[in-house]
Amino acid sequence: MSNQRVLVFAYYFPPMGLSGVQRVSKFMKYLPDVGWQPHVITTGPTAYYAHDESLLTDLEDRDILIYRTEGKDPNSLLKDQGTIKMPREFVRKILRRLSDTFFIPDNKKAWAQQALAVARDLVQQYEYEAIFVSGPPFSSMMAAATLSKETGIPLIVDYRDLWVGNQFHFYPTLWHSNKHQQLEREVLSVASRVTVTNRRIKEHLIARYNFLRSDEVAIIPHGYDPADFVQVSPFPREDSAFRLTYAGIFYDVVSPIPFFKAVKKVITENPTIKLDLQFVGLLRDEYKKAAKKYRIDALITDHGYCEHGDSVRHLLSSDALWMMVGNTRNADTISSAKLYEYMASRKPLLVSVPDGILRKDAQRYGAAWITEPDDVDAIATSIVEMYTAWKQGRMPKPNEDVIASHNRAHLTELLAKQFGMSARVI
User: Fold this and answer.
1) Domains in the chain: how many in total?
2) Same domain for 263 and 139?
3) Can you give the residue range of the structural domain that contains 61?
4) Does 250 lie in the same domain as 192?
5) According to DSSP H, which parts of 126-173 are helical?
6) Same domain flag for 34 and 77
7) 162-171 b/e with 16+ CB inside 10 Å = b?
8) Residue 173: which of 96, 97, 251 has the closest Cα?
């Protein structure tokens, strides 16, 4: 039984799906093993692009208490719609820009205030040694900081992405940019410890806020849950094609178009090469139309969103896996959880990313072909090289030490250490 309690603010939490949920949910799964009982404040029913009840089942029989709110953020107000369709990319960008213009720091502010009200009730019932919050959304960081100031309970804030300078955020005016920096400064001035997914984010924070010491900012990377890969069988196959799989969604600078162009080039110049392209997640209609435009749609199987266990099975059923992140502001700080779950499959990878932490980790993994995100010729060449190596039975083997370093059970131990270094003595 856990002997210390941590109060957790987590907007993105099961049964929401997609990879952004899993960092926090997997921390919660393993924290009881290292002496911490999480009390998680999260949303009630929400409309969202994907739901995955299996991620919630994964937390059953763990020493975790979950409290759900009835938020007033846009997703909660649309809760009766359940799983909603992601809009076309240009519509999504317009909606995002409108949101960034009128909601500071984000459109989860109403939920964060309701979560704070729940938290204030909980601290009257339980004694907590620490408060933990992961962003985005960054409004939840503000709520957690407010509670920490009111109660004296130490705060640990976790960055999955940058706040100020976030690669996907729109700052319509200098006032908006300055306001975000002011709010972030206020949160960090309250925090006892900060955790980040990679060194580039740490460097950005320390450079911007001179009161942050290097030893107060700990790097805890994204990872994979080894339990997800135990006794999991690949889906049976009867084909003889080279199967390349992508798991996840496409949005903003994450686009399949350069890959589609590269595949078109490969099959035009190498008609004997047989490719099988599998997509597990959300491949929107506009990209399906693009595949038809390039006349590669016959090579594509779109599985839609799958429960996480089936997603893992698709990875294991593949000959190689592909991922991409496009060029954007502060792209070197982007740390996609997808890469590390790919690593756990031990499959060869095609990684199309700009210079930064993802490229460096793909190089450390070893069994990877790495290209610029929009270099169609390089992507095409890599596909041919991978196909040839596969046909000849000489695919590269990954670095097992690198894989082991991203085990979520181990990463949770690192998080618990940060809790322990800041926890108050009751």
Assistant:
1) 2
2) no
3) 4-223+407-422
4) no
5) 139-151
6) yes
7) bbbbbbbbeb
8) 97
The two structure tokens encoding residue 81: 């719609």
Whether the Cβ atoms of residue 424 and residue 154 lie closer than 8 Å to each other: yes
Do residue 70 and residue 179 come from a single domain? yes
What are the DSSP E strand ranges found in 231-335? Answer: 242-249, 275-282, 300-304, 320-324
CATH number at residue 392: 3.40.50.2000
Place of tokens 């008609």: 271
Distance (Å, whole) CA 11 – CA 133? 9
List the 130-135 sheet strands across, edge first: 65-69, 36-43, 4-9, 130-135, 155-159, 193-196, 217-219
Q: Which helix (H) or strand (E) covers residue 9, if one does?
A: strand 4-9
314 and 349, same structural domain? yes
Strands (DSSP E) found in 308-348: 320-324
The tens-digit pLDDT sequence of the chain (426 residues) is: 458 999 999 999 998 877 679 999 999 999 999 999 999 999 987 666 677 888 999 999 999 999 999 756 555 555 544 454 555 665 666 777 777 677 888 989 999 999 999 999 999 999 999 999 999 999 999 999 999 999 999 999 999 999 998 877 878 888 888 898 999 999 999 999 999 999 999 999 999 999 999 999 999 999 999 999 998 899 999 889 999 999 998 887 789 999 999 999 999 999 999 999 999 988 888 899 999 999 999 999 999 988 899 999 999 999 999 999 988 878 888 888 999 999 999 999 999 999 999 999 999 999 999 999 999 999 999 999 999 999 999 999 999 999 999 999 999 999 999 999 986 654
Could you tell me which residues come within 8 angstroms of residue 374 by beta carbon, excluding any fewer than 6 positions away?
A: 258, 326, 327, 352
What is the distance between the alpha carbons of residues 64 and 41, in angstroms, rounded to a whole number? 11
Q: Which two tokens stand for residue 119?
A: 């938290």
The reported pTM is 0.91
Backbone angles phi, psi at 390, to 5 degrees: -65, -45
Q: Are residues 30 and 112 in the same domain?
A: yes
Please tell me the distance from the alpha carbon of residue 169 to that of residue 164, in angstroms, as a whole number.
8
Q: Are residues 51 and 97 in the same domain?
A: yes
Backbone angles phi, psi at 15, to 5 degrees: -85, 15
Helix (H, G, I), strand (E, B) or coil at 250: coil
What is the C-alpha to C-alpha distance for residues 47 and 49, in angstroms, rounded to an integer?
Answer: 7
Indicate if 324 and 273 belong to the same structural domain.
Answer: yes
Backbone angles phi, psi at 51, to 5 degrees: -125, 145
